[in-house]
Design goal:
The protein is of the alpha+beta class. The chain contains seven helices and nine strands, in the order H-E-E-E-H-E-H-H-E-E-E-H-E-H-E-H. It has a seven-stranded mixed sheet, sandwiched between helices. It is globular.
Length: 203
């Protein structure tokens, strides 16, 4: 299928298209920050973090115990997306940011923010569909604070009744948090089961 001319591309991906894609196990990515086109991807072997196997470093746990930060849910969704896109190369385009802000406004996309003082220093965001959470990206501006954000995301998933934490691809970085690979058949089964059950991000 030929790509549409830039003038023909809608400003956002319609929310129903995004949700339909996630329900089928595919997710959107762009080639760069200013790329107007969207490509849909899946993975033959999927990265997931079993909710009962999540772990973080001892250093991050010490930061959590000291509570020298503030965390929130859905307080600055756009700020978290902008933080995730603020790197030399990114798949998070301006169109994706606008599209996911639309999902957020409808209650399907969520963020966890970490503040030190008034500064947003880390965050993670993703899409919630029934009891499946599709983690999209995270960022940090201070060492270890991204792990703190993931910790609080994990707590939101536990208290909210989620059953699947999809991180798309297995990487050595994600392995430190308990990420494992499952084959496409097992993933489809886990996704189908999660979509049968209600959940609420944040409990």
């Amino acid at each position: 299928m030929p790509k549409a001319q830039q003038g023909d591309i809608p400003e956002i991906i319609p929310p129903e298209i995004l949700l339909q894609g996630y329900a089928q196990g595919v997710f959107p990515m762009a080639e760069s920050r200013h790329d107007p086109d969207i490509n849909w991807y899946t993975a033959r072997r999927r990265g997931v973090i079993p909710l009962d196997s999540f772990r973080i470093s001892g250093k991050a746990r010490r930061i959590i115990r000291k509570k020298e930060y503030r965390w929130s849910v859905n307080e600055d969704f756009t700020g978290v997306m902008e933080g995730c896109a603020d790197r030399d190369t990114t798949w998070i385009s301006d169109r994706i940011i606008r599209s996911f802000k639309g999902l957020h406004d409808l209650g399907y996309a969520h963020s966890v923010e970490i503040y030190q003082g008034d500064r947003l220093t880390a965050g993670v965001y993703g899409v919630a569909l029934q009891a499946a959470f599709f983690a999209e990206s995270m960022f940090q501006r201070e060492s270890e604070m991204g792990k703190v954000a993931l910790h609080h995301c994990h707590q939101c998933l536990l208290t909210g009744g989620f059953r699947l934490w999809d991180v798309q691809f297995y990487t050595p970085h994600l392995a430190q948090f308990g990420c494992v690979e499952i084959d496409s058949g097992d993933y489809r089964h886990a996704l189908a089961e999660a979509l049968k059950h209600p959940a609420r991000f944040g409990g």
